[in-house]
């Protein structure tokens, strides 16, 4: 029983050390999981002479999930990325192009003085102003 207590104490100490390092790493970089799910229920009162209940998806907006992140490089500069994928809420499959991250997939550099430069699949710049 004494050996179990020693092993448990060592494991607890290791977890504490990892917690300190993860807090330090978190201060310098970030990754965020985000998304939007648009699902609803549709009622038709005269569908072939009967009433009908249906599950409806993406009626008002697109259904998607994504990852975005930044890594501080110092001097006011960050490395950034964004990956976003649309999916069909009715069956869980991909909504377009049958590929993962079919909406957005880009990397770039962001600087406080010079602005942002990104490369990859992204929306038109007009979308930022809508």
Task: Report on this structure.
It is a single chain. The protein has about 130 residues and is of the alpha+beta class. It has one domain. The protein has one helix at about 1-30; strands at about 30-35, 40-45, 50-55, 65-75, 75-85, 105-110, 115-120. The strands form two sheets. The protein has a five-stranded antiparallel beta sheet. Strands 2-3 form a two-stranded antiparallel sheet. Mean pLDDT is about 80; it is low at about 5-10 and about 20-25. GO terms for molecular function: porin activity. InterPro entries: Gram-neg_bact_OMP, Gram_neg_porin_domain, Porin_dom_sf. It comes from Paraburkholderia dinghuensis. It is found in: Cell outer membrane.
List its salient traits.
130 residues; 21% helix; transmembrane; disordered N terminus; alpha+beta; two-stranded antiparallel sheet; ion transport; signal; five-stranded antiparallel beta sheet; cell outer membrane
